[in-house]
Amino acid sequence: MTFTNKAASEMRERINQSIKCDGVTVGTFHSIGARILRKYIKNLNKRYSSSFTIYDGSDQKLILKDIIEELDLGNYKEFNPNFLRAKIDSFKNASMSVKDVQSEAKGFENEKIAEIYKLYLEKLIQNNAVDFNDLILLPIQLFKKNKSLLKSYQNLWKYILVDEFQDTNSPQFQLISFLAGGHKNITVVGDDDQSIYGWRGANIDNILTNFKDTFPKAVEIKLEKNYRSTQRILDGAWSVVSNNTNRAEKKLVATKGQGEKISLIPTGNDKEEALAVADSIKKDIKINKSTFQDFAILYRTNAQSRIIEQILMREGLPYSIVGGTKFYDRKEIKNVLAYLILICNRNDNVALKRIINFPVRGIGEKTIKLLNDSANKKKISLFESLQFAKELKLRNKQCDAILNFYHSINKFHDLLEKLDCKELFRVILEEFNIEYYYKNNPVEQDRYNNIQELKSSIDYFAETSGAGLREFLQEVALYTDLDDWNNKQNSITLMTIHAAKGLEFPTVFITGLEQGLFPLMRIDDSSDQFEEERRLFYVALTRAMEKAYLLNAHYRRRFGSQNTSSFVQSDFLNEINEDSLKIKKYKSVYTKRIVSSVNGKTMRVARTVTEFDDFSVGDMVQHNLFGVGTIIVLNGSGENQKVGIEFKDGLKKKLIVKYANLKRID
């Protein structure tokens, strides 16, 4: 049993290659749960059939929307489908029944949530449907109810192996405990230092204590030989995670030798941080003949990718995003951009249809069809047809919503030339209640952060170009047009650290190592959550096979403003073993020049010099031809730096850094 279809497929392939055993059942927790339910779900409730549907998140939210309408809770902003879905998932991950939730419910909001939970479960049965949590919970209910059925599965699966055991939640642990409870032939494989999914219900105690308590005769085998990373990377990661109190002690030994020290690059701001990453990649490709696919850039939150993507595009470096969508392709960003597009071009029907009911105004597909028919009849645009909403057979509330939307878009269209794009964008967010829609929903914090990052992007564009909203939209359109030329087989990988788990790259960049960002901590966070952040850093660093770079920014645009006063270096940088770390100084130099055009004179800013202060007088270095030597003189900086080196036997040479391929000997 494992967690992903990819991992299950690889296991099945390896088993077939090694032992040729046709009778082995290999699958994810959810696929094995579904297999059991297809045969026996009727034993739980006669209204179910074996053809039940498995609902995903969007299906769940549609049911919850119906329930909100039934209970007449539409006017209560706290009862939104995303929030309610997260609450229900948390109930199920904690194996809480409706009675459990009802017994703990105090106050109007919690009592209504309990009522919604009960109705939600009832509607699943009505629709002959289960959600993903049910694929674990319902087999448990089956086994509790029918001991002979449990016995038959214990006889069928006499030996059980569980991979990535540190990621199991309480119901998953209960399921495997049932299946192995008779014969106790069970092996689990996992690493408590890589338990990073507590926020979605994973219980680290399953691997640390619960397994031994449930199976007291279990034998523990430590796998401490590491085939991926160098010793310095492992030592750096261990020196941080070993500060956790809730862990099993172990120390990994690399088969690949010591390797290079981990590089720490402090930068002035988030743009410089992204430039340092891009320049490091270009330098490595030039000197070591690396390929784009050798590099991964990791970040704690999705919002951090915006400036990195922007710089990679500008520098002509191909990239792809794993486990996420490119910044300007994300749903919440597309929704906001659709407002800007419609304000600039009121004939854009695609933009209009995207946002006419976002945030929710009670305007559905039937209403849009009526408006479309009216537009065709009057031979006007769909947008212009909105002003005639009262001629259609619509409820007063719908008519008011359509007319208010129509007048607001026209108002902002008239303001296009009167307000700068920074001010205009903020007024639009406020007028259409977009920020509030995301800000007050804890489940939507990542999307709210992305809206703030878009605000930063528009601010930066306005400050550096002096242009307006139309020009910004054109620049964004050109960004998305460039996506097609990226060769996904040979591109730099961008992803959150959570998405990187299980992957490996020759060189890894970990960005945003500032207190409050990574570790990402809030005022009410517990010590357990901080320990999970440490484990997340351990996972990030151990994705690197040969080289690792840690970066932070003294000033960072966050939540739509420049954070200039509260920079604190990440605790992880205070904890990391100094012997594993080297500091690389970096700066970009800009020049300004006035250029003439048909529209007059404008100021252009260009980046002319990049400096990596890699070497110092007295450094011991290795040269492929001349061997080991000592730097006795330096001239210049960065990759154009010239060095004077005295090698063994008194041989002295003057070399240019970017051609010499020198390696420092630590």
From TrEMBL:
Which Gene3D superfamilies does the UniProt record give? 1.10.10.160, P-loop containing nucleotide triphosphate hydrolases (3.40.50.300), PCRA, domain 4 (1.10.486.10)
Q: What EC number(s) are associated with this protein in UniProt? A: 5.6.2.4
Q: Which GO terms describe its biological process?
A: recombinational repair
Keyword terms, alphabetized: ATP-binding, DNA-binding, Helicase, Hydrolase, Isomerase, Nucleotide-binding
Which GO terms of the cellular component aspect does the record hold? cytosol; DNA helicase complex
Named from the GO MF annotations, one term is: ATP binding
Q: Where is the UvrD-like helicase ATP-binding domain?
A: 1-230
Known catalytic reactions: Couples ATP hydrolysis with the unwinding of duplex DNA by translocating in the 3'-5' direction; ATP + H2O = ADP + phosphate + H(+)
Residue span, UvrD-like helicase C-terminal domain? 231-502
Q: Write out the similarity annotation.
A: Belongs to the helicase family. UvrD subfamily.
What's the protein here called? DNA 3'-5' helicase
